[in-house]
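Project standup — Tuesday

K.O.: blocked on the structure for the chain from last sprint. Re-posting the sequence here as requested.
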Amino acid sequence: GTTGLIYTQSAYTLKKGQFNIGGKIVYNEITKQNDNKISFLAGEEAKQFYFPMTLTVGALDNFELGFVFAAQNWKINSSSMTPQNDSGSGMGDINMRMKYKLPMQVESPTSLAIGWGAKFPTADKKTMYVMGATGEADYDLFVALSQKLSSANAHVNLGYVSTGDPKSSVAGQRLFVDDKFYYNLGVDFSKSDDLTLMFELNGENWGAMGTKLDFTPGIRTRVNKDLVMDAALPISFYNDQEYGYNFKFVMGATYTF
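H.V.: unblocked you, prediction finished:
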């Protein structure tokens, strides 16, 4: 919901009074479950679709507020997976994120921002659990560092997510879900205002829920002064979480007012 690359947050913010809206399509096939490679028989498949819509506002000088609203769809038809034959579609969780750029010297090439976010559990846990829905709120704290180079920008993120513990099927009991730590390393190269190349490493440690590491190359092109389009292909280096993938496909656009 806040400004940055595909997954990596920058330490920059929208100007006061600016706002942008955007949308993306994210698709992947599920190829692993709990680090076990899935062997599909003829006619079997497992896939996930994610359709986030973003709204970001430059609320104050050096402070922006972003929201993500999403639709989701998934389907699993595999004799070697759990569930074996099921599907779901509907609204995803709503995410809110705030980012504040700390005051620095005007000519400094280094920018530092801190942020806070929350996930509102609007997704139906019974049908959207394959997409990560827990039915509980999560809270996110992160720091973003950006460094301007001659024709590039380098970005580093460190974040912590306090996850809500969902209710068990047994009355009065809860399932304990580990908190999440994540990091992003990103760099964007641009020789002109019309084309930007992006490369990211996106890591996540979710305790007993598993870890993952993706390499995300991407491209961003400016159609006009207000409209930007981007595409990326996150490639999984490692993933032992419940629903793993080899790669994702991401495409989207953002319009700034």
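K.O.: great, moving the ticket to review. The chain has a mean pLDDT of 94. The first helix runs from residue 125 to 128.
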